[in-house]
Amino acid sequence: MTAYRIAIVGSGPAGLSAAAHAARLGLSHVLLEKTYHLSDTIYKYQKGKHVMATPSQLVLRSPLDFEAGKREVVLGTWNDQTAAAQVNVRYHAEVKSIAGTGPAIEGSVMKIVTRKRDGTSETRELQRHAPPYRLTLTNGEEIIAETVILAIGTQGNPNLMTCPGGNLPHVQYQLDDPTEYTDEHIFVIGGGDAGIENALGLCADPAQNNMVTLVNRSADFATAKDANVKALLAARDSGRISLMTETTTRQIEPGYITLDTRDGEVRARCDRIIARMGSAPPRGFVEGCGIEFASNDRLAFPKLSATFESTAPGIYVVGALAGYPLIKHCMNQGHDVVEVINGNLDLKPADEPILEAKFTGLPGGRSVADWLEYLRSRVSILSGMSSLQMREFMLDSSVKLYRAGDVVFERNAPGSSLFGIADGQVLVEVNPSDPSITVPINAGTIFGEVGLISGRRRGATIRAGSDCILVEISRNAALKLMSQVPSAAREITRITTERSLLQIFKSGLAPADLVDVIAGAKVESIRAGQAIIKEGEAGDDIFIIRSGSMVVEKSIGGKPVFLSYVPAGSFVGEMAVIDGSPRSATVRAAVKSDVIRLAGEPFRALLAAKPQLLDKLRGEMANRTRLNNYIESKKDSFSSVVDMYTGVANFLVDQGVGEATDVLLIDEKLCVGCDNCEKACADTHDGLSRLDREAGRTYAHLHVPTSCRHCEHPHCMADCPPNAIHRGPTGEVYIDDTCIGCGNCQRNCPYGVIRMDKVPPKKPWLLSWFLFGSGPGPGEPSHKWAKKADPAYAEKAKKAIKCDMCSGQEGGPACVRACPTGAAIRVSPEQFLSVALMGREGK
């Protein structure tokens, strides 16, 4: 049995760096690698992959060199330098267990819960022992070490496909050589760096002739590096890759994949699936070493001190297993942990100067470590992170002192960042006409979540009610936080749920009234067409529509008849809670939607305690009962009209009304084809009309022309490099002058309502043309005039053009004002569908 000062398990970037530094310091060490080569994670990168060296501003401390470059070059450099440093490497040395051989540590019994595939669990106790540690290898050999550095990463424990067919042989979790595949329809599942790089590699050579589609469950690529996202979008723009965002896998069959998209179910040909959905720490092995995790969440990381020491004394954790996946971070950690083991306890992390600059100017004179712990312990959404995770998190966030009265942001200002209150209090100005009417938000919680979730402009002015310290978290950092720290996702969901309920139900409710209701609340993603309530079934859950929209239908004469449209911010299901009756109608998603499911029993207890809320819900119930009775009474004498309007409702949902906030509709019974609507739009927007009257679809006499729907979650906003697309104070989605003409919005819009065009010079007054010949004459095309008026017009770059609802102009949209017969109307979908159905009897 051989004894060492340090045993390093895993030869990834962190482990290699630690071993090389131990060799340089002359420390007795061994580097244990279970494979036959170094750095298995990078070795398994696809051939030719470009390895990034981010963050660029971070100094590299490792004795091994590392620069951005191809996988093969990086591995070659490390192999050469490891050999030159005389690192003691043991290959084919897989560690089976690590156990302390010293005396038992008093009061240090650890409970380990093992969850089995059948849903049951098994609990066992582990008594921790002091070092030295015995490392037992799978071949039976034993090694003794005073200290252990775990640098095993997480790639050996990938997240698996759980949908039907997820275990079929054409589903794989790694891509070694993308050039091996040709003439295949390949779906890459996952929008992180690994998924993006795999997708790009599969279509890098046009001769491969692969049809590559990348599937991402969200609209954003929050966990991927910016350079990778830009390369992915460039590949999409050139037609080499198809992107499917806000999409999940429903079923896998030989030769096919079925996906749930925002607009419904899609079944497509598929020869191969490469699933790159991240990985989780190898919890069983790590807990068996006596190391506790931060929580019971599958994605939780081990509890670590600021010097990387775990709850097992003398066992240190570095690299991806510590929550730091970036290579440069890992290499610095490997260097630093050996310094700590060697007695250098005063060494500051390499990112210390960057973080010191962020905390400059704050009161209190705290160190970086103290500030990180202060913020982590004071802001609820940050409490689940380790000190190491906090360091990485703060590199992408900022912290600032606001004095009492300072404005944090103003109503209608653009912004999608999230704020955490570490100290003090902020005030929300709830009445735009009277800033003195405010609602306080106290330390520990967050604000700004509406902009984060919906992308809408700020809904209220918020100012500091006292001196306060706020953490501002960028949208990408917040999304990354929610995806990587389960406790943060739960807390953000809890807070947004609470505020949604207070906003929707009002009735004098306070947060304390909702504790039991929210405790059992669940956020669920509903695919387009899926029912959350089915007519005739039992059930008493209430559903809050968080995003998307629903349609309500009732079976009349064996046919589903449209009743109403339910937009985001509404609720359904209250009737069963109040009277205990079976569901009276079916409620299904018009588009992919998120709902908050509230259990009936705690909500019933809330109604008993709050009579005013019960009265409100009874009023809603009465309205819906009247609508049901109306439909029932007309099922014979009025059935043809009901059928027609049910058809119209379904048609409008198919045309995107389900995710719209404002729609232009034309009644073809009234339209005379004068095109005044298009002309008025052009005259209002420098000669460039934002609508095409003749284009679009028609059902019965109702026409939906090509014009912006101002979607609740605009597709066009998803990827705008200069952030030039905004939502105005009255809901309009518009493009400002910072547009660079990249065309991403045009490609992302599923309704074809955005086009790229050159913006002509401003037209002079008509009187100027009449008296002096300035400007385009009657009937003269604007582009023809622009070429004469501006010699440089032909060289101008195109910009994105779309409807802005004539924002800022008196009287509302020009297309509606110019219609001589009243055929053109702009309405919200719930207004049209409900009013059209109920108002038909009088026509």
From TrEMBL:
SMART domains attached to this UniProt entry: cNMP
Record domain Cyclic nucleotide-binding: where: 381-499, 505-624
Gene3D superfamilies attached to this UniProt entry: 3.30.70.20, FAD/NAD(P)-binding domain, Jelly Rolls
Entry keyword Zinc: no
Keywords: 4Fe-4S, Electron transport, Iron, Iron-sulfur, Metal-binding, Transport
4Fe-4S ferredoxin-type domain mapped to chain residues: 662-694, 731-759, 797-830
CDD domains assigned to the protein according to its UniProt record, in alphabetical order: CAP_ED, DMSOR_beta_like
Alphabetical list of InterPro entries matching this protein: 4Fe4S_Fe-S-bd, 4Fe4S_Fe_S_CS, cNMP-bd_CS, cNMP-bd_dom, cNMP-bd_dom_sf, FAD/NAD-bd_sf, FAD/NAD-binding_dom, RmlC-like_jellyroll
Top-level taxon of origin: Bacteria
Molecular function GO terms recorded: 4 iron, 4 sulfur cluster binding; metal ion binding; oxidoreductase activity
A Pfam family of this chain: Pyr_redox_2
Keyword Electron transport attached: yes
PANTHER family cross-referenced by the UniProt entry: DIMETHYLSULFOXIDE REDUCTASE CHAIN B, OXIDOREDUCTASE
Protein name per its UniProtKB record: Oxidoreductase
